[in-house]
């Protein structure tokens, strides 16, 4: 079975279908692993969810910040805003409950032991070893799939960085932020959630999370998305597969059996 990893989709169904054609995807024998942010901003968020939901047996998505925002709009108490309009068809869909339940039972972090590979949306805090990362991911997944999900999703909108002395909602928020929003950290390991530019455009006070000298997970490949200004980028055994398809860039896929070979599909969107 091929394991095909795909970067941020963000409602770009036509590009996703084009990319799947390029990789000759076969639902009977292949598995798709998405790096989060299936929805929002693009023109066909509802259609993306419906398409992947219809292939549930061969699809997995590591939850991203836009996926969690959709959950907050539907099962949390997050108010609808004008900037959420690309997700309104989902909110109005007769199949909303099935789609949302499918989405909230997706993982925060996924591992492929045979390939010594990890998939997340944004990153893994460099201070976490693999056992901590697994524990943190399972904790968030358990909460999202519980009756406490509405309150957690309502309270998650903060810039709380990770710190080992946190507890309660502050700890939950910090873990969610690391897995789904992190790009830069400072020299003390504090996350910066406002800077979105490429590293070459940022001063020395901030470093990409994966370049930290404190990085504990060194023996596994890590695949992530979220960082469109970073784009198609590799650093040692860590790869970004978000090339900004929704911004007019490309959608990227790799086969875990040959991760150095990247398949790209150019966006139809003009920005």
CATH architectural designation = 4-Layer Sandwich
Q: CATH homologous superfamily?
A: Metallo-dependent phosphatases
* Largest beta-sheet characterization: 10 strands, mixed
Radius of gyration: 17 Å
Care to give the gist of this entry?
By secondary structure, the chain is α/β, with parallel strands linked by helices. It has eight helices and 13 strands. It has a single domain, classed as Metallo-dependent phosphatases (Purple Acid Phosphatase, chain A, domain 2, 4-Layer Sandwich), CATH 3.60.21.10.
Write up this protein.
This protein is an alpha/beta fold. The protein has one domain (2-266): Purple Acid Phosphatase, chain A, domain 2 (4-Layer Sandwich), CATH 3.60.21.10. Helices cover 29% and strands 22% of the residues. It has eight helices and 13 strands. The strands form two sheets. Strands 1, 2, 3, 4, 5, 9, 10, 11, 12 and 13 form a ten-stranded mixed beta sheet that branches. It starts with a strand and ends in a 5-residue tail after the last strand. The mean pLDDT is 95.
Q: Notable features of this structure?
A:
271 residues; alpha/beta; Purple Acid Phosphatase, chain A, domain 2; ten-stranded mixed β-sheet; 29% helix
